[in-house]
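Figure-free illustration: sequence to structure, shown twice.
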Amino acid sequence: MPDYMAPIFAEHEARYSAAVKASTWGHLYPKLGSKQNGWIEWSVSAFGDTTINDYEFEGLESSEPLMDDVLNFICDQDHLEPGFYRWEGWYKKFKNCRCQFQSAPIYQASFQKAA
């Protein structure tokens, strides 16, 4: 398809893609307005690279919207020093596609060198 035609179909393709995702993965999406208790563990390398190690929320299976929200939450924690981090609290999804993570402050796990 020529480049000049792409904008003509962009809106239709976006709606179609959203409909396919919802029909395929919609049963895994977080229920709007409900709170799910859970935790997230991630690490920050000395070079500033962030890696999600694991996460779990009660009653939720992994889904694209949940993963997007977890990634956005972790990326907002840009003030963290290198190390391993754990967040515990609850997650809530709103109707306007926004979400909220609420908890006690994030804490850094302590490590001991092996003898």
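We now fold a second protein in the same way, so the two outputs can be compared directly.
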Amino acid sequence: MPTEAREQSKIETYPEYIMCDLRQRRGLEEDDTSEDQSIMSMNKNRILDEVCNWNGLINYGSSIRGWIREIYGIDLDNISE
């Protein structure tokens, strides 16, 4: 993906419920925004992995990305930052 397209696909923040999961995964309170900048700099694959792990889908991030690729034809590994 060209740099320009990658820049346009970046989001400023994830939905609050995702941010709460990511904060709690780091041992923070769900409303503690002290590490949000660090969270937002994470690769999207890692974001999915962390959200899956927090929600009990331990080590399923890669499998889920594979299922999406096989079912929908969308390769999340190639569009992840």
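Summary for the second example: The helical segments are 3-9, 16-25, 36-40, 44-54, 61-72, 76-79.
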